[in-house]
Write a structure and sequence with these properties.
By secondary structure, this protein is α+β, with helices and mostly antiparallel strands. The protein has five helices and nine strands, in the order αβββααααββββββ. It has a six-stranded antiparallel sheet, with no helix packed on it. It starts with a helix and ends in a 5-residue tail after the last strand.
Length: 189
């Protein structure tokens, strides 16, 4: 399998870790010179693959171009594209996701989450709790809670992002369409 070959070729020590809210994966070169990549355990197999190749692209780009390059600069983008090409096939990605993956890798971003269409398509393969909704599914005026407990009222749409009024502060925040939230009954807010 090409994925295993990438790990073996680059002598990667791969660790599967508990979910981190701020990242799907991470690459580090240890003091002893070994390459360590961590990937969150809660990712579906498609997001796991993209994340793993993303992190291996950091390793390869740093080795090829030197450590002075920007982490998500031109060199990394070219490396990530090249490493992903063997995986952008219908045998690997489902037909509903494949065109979005191909489009994304014409100019990959630091996080596939910033590509709202791809992120939403990938989330369809996540295990989702029955009480969790995407913000685009929440009706205007309804109250919702984030994982951190903060409560908002959905105000509508601004271009591509949804507006939420934080109940505690009265401040407005913008949310990507695929932000996962929990509906809150009116009396709880």
């Amino acid at each position: 399998m090409p994925c295993f070959e990438l790990i073996k070729t680059h002598s990667v020590h791969l660790k599967i870790v508990h979910e981190r809210q701020t990242r799907h994966g991470d690459y580090r070169k240890a003091v002893n010179g070994k390459h360590e990549i961590t990937v969150n355990a809660n990712l579906n197999k498609y997001r796991f693959l993209i994340t793993l190749v993303h992190e291996i692209a950091h390793l390869v780009a740093f080795e090829h171009y030197g450590r002075q390059i920007k982490p998500h600069g031109v060199e990394w983008k070219m490396t990530f594209q090249r490493l992903m090409v063997p995986f952008i096939r219908p045998e690997i990605f489902p037909h509903s996701v494949l065109p979005l993956v191909a489009q994304h890798f014409r100019n990959p971003t630091a996080s596939s989450d910033t590509d709202a269409r791809l992120a939403y398509a990938l989330k369809q393969f996540d295990e989702r709790k029955s009480d969790v909704y995407f913000i685009h599914e929440v009706p205007n005026g309804a109250y919702f809670r984030l994982k951190n407990g903060r409560i908002f009222q959905k105000q509508g749409l601004r271009v591509k992002r949804y507006i939420g009024l934080e109940v505690a502060t009265g401040k407005l925040f913008l949310f990507n369409a695929n932000a996962e939230v929990e509906l809150v009954p009116v009396r709880e807010s």
